[in-house]
Amino acid sequence: MAKLISVVVPMFNEEAVLDGFFARIVPVLDGITERFGLNWEIVAVDDGSRDTTADRLKEIAAANPAVTVVLLARNFGKEAAMTAGLEHARGDAVIPIDVDLQDPPEVMDEFVQRWFNGAEMVVGIRLDRSADTPVKRTTSRLFYQLFNLLCRPGIPENAGDFRLMDRVVVDAVLRLRETNRFMKGLFAWVGFKTEYVEFVREKRSAGSSTWSYMRLLRFAIDGITGFSTVPLRMWSWLGFTIAILSFVYGVYFVVKALIIGDPVAGFPTLVAVILFLSGMQMIGLGVMGEYVGRLYMEAKQRPVYIAREVIRSRAETSASSD
Ligand code: UDP
Ligand code: MG
Questions:
Q1: Which of 4, 83, 63, 74 is nearest to 39 (CA)?
Q2: Segment 256-304, tens digit of pLDDT
Q3: Using one digit for the tens of pLDDT, what is the confidence trace for 121-141?
Q4: Rounded to an integer, what distance in angstroms lies between the CA atom of residue 183 and that of residue 84?
């Protein structure tokens, strides 16, 4: 039987770009599947949109049996929505893509070509990010550097979620059941034969990004704490270093008092040292809190998302094994 490729699209309040997305991606998919002798499906996940996205998706699914729609019960965030999409995709290869056309669908042709030549994962690398603001580019570069310093395996800078994954990779990723899902990290963690394809990231076609800087910061903290315990362990080293320094400092004071006496002085030093050390302790506690909080959330073992409804054409369903 012909192989199937699944395109997974998370959507949150995307009524402005949705029709443009389908209008552009469907011809591309038709071209690819014809060229390589494949079938395609699109798994669209509505991540609890508050606009007409869900209704529009239902109409599209009703008109096109190759479109499966997963409606989440509320907004669970992009990582959870993508997980839902991966779980409902049945393709031999799966391609997650953003709906705002920042990932040009035409690149998928190259993805599929590489997959046919034996790659198990083909990662899209954003060559030129001039479509993003300078602040976003700088903070994202800093994040990648920090992540790669602290976490193994690292993730290539400028890689996004836009990529092709063979079924073996998707199944491996879905075996990672953690609640805190930093997908780029999970994709890298499973390994497999990976190739890279460069592309130019386009401007958002319409609508606006829902990622505030606060949300990006949380995302960054999730990413790093999900893959590294260095932030937790570094406090022992810091404490150790400070203890040694304090000891040396103490000896210095004793010797000084013995040689030139002990006039009461050094109040500012005292205050500074106390404030500095209590500040450090607070930070250490805070970092511990980050991990304990995550431990707590993971311990509940809640599902990553809740789906309200899955719309899949009957013909397609009976052909599947689940
Ligand atoms: N998205 C989602 N849930 C959210 C936020 C975003 O499914 O809570 C989707 C969104 O619809 C889009 C993709 O994730 O398909 C990327 O979002 P966006 O373009 O806002 O992010 P950016 O490109 O700025 O990183
Ligand atoms: Mg975008």
A1: 4
A2: 888 887 777 777 778 778 888 888 888 888 888 888 888 888 888 889 9
A3: 999 998 877 767 788 888 888
A4: 12
Ligand 2 mean position, distance from CA 193 (Å): 27
- The CA-atom distances, in angstroms, between 133 and each of 21, 127, 139, 210 are 23, 15, 10, 15
Q: Which helix (H) or strand (E) holds 71?
A: strand 67-72
One-letter amino acid at 246 equals S
Q: Report the b/e string of 62-75 with b at 16+ CB within 10 A.
A: eeeebbbbbbbeeb
Block residue for tokens 């008092």? 257
- Could you give the CA distance from residue 159 to residue 279 in angstroms, rounded to a whole number? 36
Q: Is 172 in the pocket of ligand 1 (CB under 6 A)?
A: no
Identify the residue whose tokens are 């209704």: 55
pTM: 0.81
Q: Is the C-beta atom of 183 inside 6 A of ligand 1?
A: no
Residue 114: both structure tokens together: 């590489």
Tokens of 146: 């920090």
ipTM computed for the complex: 0.94
Distance 124 CA to ligand 2 centre (A): 15
Could you tell me if the CB of 99 is within 6 A of ligand 1? yes
Which amino acid is located at 153 in the chain? Answer: P
